[in-house]
Amino acid sequence: MDITTRELQFFGQYAKVHRPMLNEINAVLAEYRLFNSQWTILKLLFQDGDMTPAEIATKQQVEKPSVTKILQRLEELTYIEVRPGEDRREKWIRLTESGHTVCHDIMGKLDALYKVFLKGVPAENIEIATAVLTHIQENLK
User: Fold this and answer.
1) Residue 130 half-sphere exposure, CB side, CA atoms within 13 Å?
2) What is the CATH number of domain 17-140?
3) Distance between alpha carbon 113 and the CA centroid of its chain, in Å?
4) For 110, phi and psi rounded to 5 degrees?
5) For residue 62, what are the contacts with CB-CB under 8 A and spacing of at least 6?
6) What does the DSSP 8-state code read for residue 85?
7) Given 43, 57, 107, 130, which is the most exposed site by the fewest CB atoms within 10 A?
8) Could you tell me the residue ranges of all domains in the chain?
C-alpha cells in the first residue's frame, strides 16, 4: 500500500508543529528549571500518584536508565522524593509539597498556552486529531 498525498501532508504538518510547540512548552518549563521530558514524569506522578522507576519507564515508554537520570535531577530540584519499598531494592517515587505546587503552577500556564495553540480549532476536530494520534500510538506498540 502506497502512502497517499493526504497522509504525507498529515505527517509533514505534524513535523512542522511538533518542534515549535515543544520549544514553547520548554520556554514555560524553563522558569522551573525543567524540560518537557522531566515535566512529563512530574505530571505522571501528579496524576497517578506514587510509583516505581520501572512503572514510570513503562508508562513513559522510555528506557529505565533515562528515567533514573531524570529522577535524579527532579530530586535535586526537590520536586520528588525517593522512599524505600518493602523490598530494599524497590524504590517508590512521590512528589514533594514543592513538586505539587510546581505541577499546579505549570498546569495553569500550559493550559493557557494550549488554548493559544488550539485557538479557532473546532472541538470535533480536536477529538478527531486526538483519536488519530492515539491510534498511531497504539500502532507503534
Assistant:
1) 8
2) 1.10.10.10
3) 15
4) -70, -35
5) none
6) -
7) 130
8) 17-140
Judge contact between 71 and 41, C-beta under 8 A. yes
Single-letter amino acid, residue 16: K
The position carrying cell 524505600 is 84
In a 13 Å sphere around the CA of 16, the CA atoms on its Cβ side amount to 6
SS3 141: coil
How far apart, in whole angstroms, are the C-alpha atoms of residue 43 and residue 60?
11
* Selected residue with higher pLDDT from 132 and 89: 132
For the entire predicted model, the pTM comes to 0.85
Alpha-helix runs per DSSP H in 31-118: 36-48, 53-60, 64-76, 97-117
CA distance 71 to 49: 15
The closest alpha carbon to 38, from 14, 60, 58, belongs to 60
